[in-house]
Design goal:
Elements lengths: L3 H15 L4 E2 H8 L3 H13 L3 E3 L4 E4 L1 H12 L3 H16 L2 E8 L2 E8 L15 E3 L4 H7 L4 H13 L7 H14 L2 E4 L6 E10 L3 E10 L5 H23 L2
Antiparallel strand pairs: 1-3, 2-3, 4-5, 4-9, 5-6, 7-8, 8-9
Helix pairs in contact: 1-3, 2-3, 5-9
Length: about 250
């Protein structure tokens, strides 16, 4: 038997996480069809435990406890070490910025990155940065592995939130091509002169996201970067899978 209070509270937390820029109480009540009096108690409990926070305009966003919970999830297995090692392998091979990302609502969230040492130019987003998923190679590498229902859900949220006037036809074409060649690539959409290449990295029981690299356009061949990323992703998931069946 389901606990309706727990189910509703988790629904509130998930909705706040999915909406870029936060959401107010009225919209939460409308979208989840929860009476405002009941919703108030859910929000108060989540805010007290610092899973969410409210700004002076009444907009709710995630707070530090949600981040801590996500970090605890990664640290609870050997996956965090595996993914960190994957970025180290990429950095050693290509000597350009390597990053790990995952979907967060209509955005892609950068979870980890490594920069080349010395005087190399350091690129890519800082840890914790979000960008509209459809505009980035890291985001499209995440989207290309979604089943149709989840991809449609992403599109609805992105469109509802007015994320960069998303062109659905263009996105479908980009994802079709990304699935065909096995990687996503972007040439300067966010930063002029910078190319980003990313591949999916997914272990259904543990993690779903992407690993990628960013570099000055022309510094390395896109296909070579994609091959290195694909090899590292495949080896990392193989390691995780082998441990899970022991």
């Amino acid at each position: 038997m389901k606990n309706r209070t727990v189910e509703r509270t988790l629904g509130v937390l998930e909705l706040i996480a999915e909406v870029k820029g936060g959401i107010n109480q009225a919209r939460i009540a409308e979208q989840l069809e929860i009476p405002k009096s009941t919703l108030h108690s859910f929000l108060a409990a989540l805010e007290e435990k610092r899973y969410i926070k409210q700004d002076r305009h009444g907009v709710f966003t995630l707070d530090i406890a949600s981040l801590a919970l996500g970090n605890a999830y990664l640290d609870s297995t050997d996956l965090s070490q595996d993914l960190g090692s994957a970025l180290e392998l990429i950095l050693d091979e290509l000597n350009v910025t390597a990053h790990l990302a995952s979907l967060d609502g209509p955005s892609v969230l950068y979870l980890h990155k490594l920069d080349p040492a010395g005087n190399q130019i350091k690129l890519a987003s800082a840890i914790g940065t979000r960008h509209p998923a459809h505009l980035t190679a890291a985001g499209r590498a995440c989207l290309m592995q979604l089943p149709t229902p989840r991809l449609q859900r992403f599109m609805r949220y992105a469109t509802a939130e007015g994320v960069e006037a998303i062109d659905l036809d263009l996105l479908e074409q980009q994802l079709t091509e990304a699935r065909r060649i096995g990687f996503a690539v972007d040439h300067g959409s966010l930063i002029a002169g910078v190319t980003t290449v990313a591949v999916p990295i997914s272990s259904p029981e543990h993690f779903s996201g992407s690993i990628g690299v960013s570099f000055l356009t022309g510094a390395i061949e896109v296909e070579h970067a994609a091959q290195v990323l694909s090899n590292v992703a495949r080896e990392t998931i193989a390691q995780v899978s082998m441990r899970s069946i022991r």
